[in-house]
Amino acid sequence: MLVSIDSNVLAYAEGTNDAHRQQIAIGILANLPLANTVIPAQVLGELFNVLTRKTRLPAAVARETITKLREMYIVADTSSEALDGAMELASDHAFSIWDAIILAVSASAGCRLLLSEDMQHGFEWRGVTVVNPFHPEPHPLLARALAV
Question: Are 79 and 108 in contact (CB under 8 A)?
């Protein structure tokens, strides 16, 4: 099962804000098979922004982090087809365009699961289920992805 990761999960793993969520994020990333993990390119841009603005990392250090992630995981680019889907999500389901792009790219990449704290937990669209990995009750799809 392909799993897509949102920027908030990666930001927590990098130590932004919450130590408890950091441990959860690190655990999830350590247990997902690299070959089954997708990061939308949009997410890498958002993470770079968080690392340089919120955590005040020097841009060169943030760039190294992004480069390592690009080497480790499958990176999915935004296509014009994904952009069309994102606009559908934004207009029909009131998603912000940036979150909608992440979900649409995840669907285009064939993901079954999108891990995100920012989107509606349990929302399903084009075969992708949004799951908040920090939700008190683990979602069955996340448990399945981690059991591989």
Answer: yes
Report the amino acid identity of residue 4. S
Cβ atoms < 10 Å from Cβ of 56: 8
Dist. CA 136–CA 45, nearest whole Å: 28
Please state the CATH superfamily assignment of the domain spanning residues 3-146 in this structure: 5'-nuclease (3.40.50.1010)
Q: How high is the mean pLDDT of the chain?
A: 96
Rounded CA separation 53/74 (Å) = 25
Q: Give the integer Cα–Cα distance in Å for 44 and 63.
A: 10
pLDDT band at 81 (very low <50, low <70, confident <90, very high): very high
Query: Position 32: which residue type?
Result: L
Going along the chain, which residue ranges are E strands? 3-5, 37-40, 74-76, 113-115, 124-125, 128-131
Q: What CA–CA distance (Å, rounded) separates 40 from 73?
A: 10
